[in-house]
Amino acid sequence: MSGNRRIAASETGLLDRFRPLFEPRTYAVVGASTSKVTLGNEMLHHLRSMDFDGAVYPIHPKADEVEGLRAYPSLGETPEPIDFAYIVVAASQVPETLAAAKGRVKYALVVSSGFGEREESRGLQEELLRAANEAGVRVVGPNCLGTYCPAGRVTFIAGSAKDSGPVGVISQSGGLGVDIIRRGSIRGIRFSRLITVGNSADLGASDILEFYAADPETKVIGMYAEGINDGRRFFQILRDLNGAKPVVLMKGGRTEQGQRAAASHTGSLASDERVWLALAEQTGLVLVDTLEEFLDTLLAFQYLTPRTDHPTRDVVMFGNGGGTSVLATDFFARTGLEVPRFADETVRRLEEMNFPPGTSIDNPIDAPGGTMRVDDGRVAGRIVDAVYASGTPDAFVMHINLPVFQVSYDQGADYTGHLVESALEAQHRASGHTHFALVLRSDGSIEVEERKIADRRNAQALGVPVFDELPNVAGALAALRHYERFLQKHP
Amino acid sequence: MDVNACIADAVSSGRDTLDEGNGKKVLGSFGIKVPQSLLVPGPDAAGDAFSQLQAPLVAKIVSPDIIHKSDIGGVKVGLDSAESLEQALREIETAAKPHTDNIGGYLVEEMAPKGHEVVVGGSTDQTFGPIVMFGLGGIFVEVLADVAFRICPITTLDAQEMIDELKTVKLLRGARGGIVASEDAIVDTLMKVGGEEGMMLALEGKVTEIDINPLIVSESEAVAVDARFVLNKD
């Protein structure tokens, strides 16, 4: 990254301030029970299963022990100050719980709901803020679920991956936060941190965004937001970031017309949708509409290194499924990408390989099952070599329709394994900077799905993003293109 | 006249917009070019006004009750003699009478040079505050909504990208034998509306919306022919 995208030394203060939120050394849980399983008990279990190695202090008004741990009556009475307190008590009890902290708690994440979501409960949220303020506690939530940080060994859902990655996520919704971790992990996304911010009574999306922008562990930022309450600051943070890290935003409520009574042309044309698109143009932010697109895009940014000299446009497609690749070519074109015809030299090189009849040796390369089985599937490597020998496309997309091999009478070799392996070997041999993506298409049957999971895991281990269908990869590459174009224009 | 005083004056007299003359004074104070003009009290003053301006001239009604001036016959163009100006003012007066009993005079202006009609506007977004808009005038804005928005403050790169973003940009660049509009002049105007020191930020809280419609852009310059300022009455 160029000089003006470096992180300033003055940001180390920001890093130190937020570290206890994601990597606490002392963790209090308020709301674990001695008689039933509450979210508090679940949290104590999560900390154990993540091998959390800091101190854990259950807070309980009466019990001496909760889940085998020594319990303390209030946040003010633990043996040492608390970095992070997880609070799941009734909304009405939250203010006094916080008040008891008396300057000994850095962050409190309030799961409880029943605060600002409805007009009549706004008063309670103000009471919460007042209590937090007096006790010197910064609050996450209320009405949220938790934080996930593999390096800090904390999570709020069972079965979270323990290995870290480059993706930092801010989710206004707790439930979507769970989906992002679960589905994202299976897709190969690895997280630096994830936080659900709920009502954002105190700490909001912009605060966390500012931290992620400076955080060396976070290299790709994903956000789900319904509303941004400090838009000017949010815009300024993104402007200052100047594309140093890609930011992918899934924005809820974008198509709603604002309730403004516009008295001018300008006012009447200024829909929310247009303004968010303006933000994307001005900051390089990538806007997505669905969870699927969000994960596809984060995946692309995690695995592929953006290229500033030549934003992604020309794509080579290779795989089995003629109709599939024709449809995909149209779809790529609609997203601003191209599947251009090959140069004569490339065609000649492919011709010399003497493929079985029915093989298209122009782009998109359509290879029927018989062609894909040449050299037990290792033909893929030779095709990739041939394409790179006579040019450097911006992206190479290989797609395999798995059932053709998995449910076939011909089980003479591990065709899909060889296809993927040989293509990736060729990709590693190539000298140019071509984004490589793999599409593993399934029919949804158990046997094919199992194969797909195994193949996907292997490809991920080799550093290749895997997508479900060609339109998914088109969307992800178009997002990459948007970001690369921003970098090119803002050196 | 001081811009803030001009706005405060309009607000204190219960108005939610600036009239055209005052609007153009505000534009002028931010360095946006407006035609030479005079506020003429009535048809009898036509001869005096004509001698001070460069014909051909345009005459427009000034009234807080009339927003779409040309719709009611409140605008006359191509006036090239003192007599035709006087005649035009009488006709405007007759046409306006059914719509208002509050005629604040007549704005008599020099005609803008030949060029493309574009719209530059400002508005206030509930999330991001001041925003700026650019589009081609007439049906392109009103029917096709072929416009580009940006959040303030914009940079000159943002302004240039707003032009590039229009589907109809080829028209500005001389398609179908038209004039090649000065993109520098458009960028300059956009900066004066939406830039760091532009009107939308400088007048934030006082002005919520601006329409410069049309802005006439020739090969060399941009001239604001009409402007509408929506004031914040809170």
The CATH class of the largest domain in chain A turns out to be Alpha Beta
Kindly name the structural category of chain A: alpha/beta
Q: What is the name of the CATH class of the largest domain in chain B?
A: Alpha Beta
The major β-sheet of chain B equals: 6 strands, antiparallel
Q: CATH H level of the largest domain in chain B: which superfamily? A: ATP-grasp fold, B domain
CATH topology of the largest domain in chain B: D-amino Acid Aminotransferase, Chain A, domain 1
How many individual domains of chain A?
3
Task: Find the biggest chain interface.
Answer: A-B, 25 and 35 residues
How much strand content do the residues of chain B show?
25-35%
* Distinct helical segment count of chain B: 9
Sheet-strand content of chain A, in percent, reads 15-25%
Mean pLDDT across residues of chain A: 92
CATH superfamily of the largest domain in chain A: Succinyl-CoA synthetase domains
- Uncertain spans of chain A: none
Task: Please tally the β strands of chain B and state the result.
Answer: 10
Envelope shape of chain A:
elongated
Could you name the ranges of chain B where pLDDT drops below 50 across 5 or more consecutive residues? none
Structure explained in plain terms:
Chain A is of the alpha/beta class. Chain A contains 18 helices and 18 strands. Helices cover 40% and strands 16% of the residues of chain A. Chain A has a 6-stranded mixed sheet, sandwiched between helices. A 5-stranded parallel sheet of chain A has the order 2-1-5-6-7, with helices on both faces. In chain A, helix 6 (205-214) packs parallel to helix 7 (231-241) and helix 14 packs parallel to helix 16. The longest helix of chain A is centred in the last third of the chain and has 20 residues, at 470-489. Chain A starts with 11 loop residues before the first helix and ends with a helix. The mean pLDDT of chain A is 92. In chain B, the strands form 2 sheets. In chain B, strands 5, 6, 7, 8, 9 and 10 form a 6-stranded antiparallel sheet that branches. Chain B has 9 helices and 10 strands. In chain B, helix 3 crosses helix 4 (82-96) and helix 6 (156-165) packs across helix 8 (183-194). Chain B has 2 domains: 3-110, Dna Ligase, domain 1 (2-Layer Sandwich); 116-231, ATP-grasp fold, B domain (D-amino Acid Aminotransferase, Chain A, domain 1). Chain A binds chain B through residues 227-228, 231-232, 235, 258, 260, 262-267, 269-270, 272, 274-275, 277-279, 281-282, 489-490, and chain B through 16-17, 119, 121-129, 131, 133, 135, 141-142, 145, 147-151, 154, 157-158, 161, 165, 208-211, 213, 228, 230.
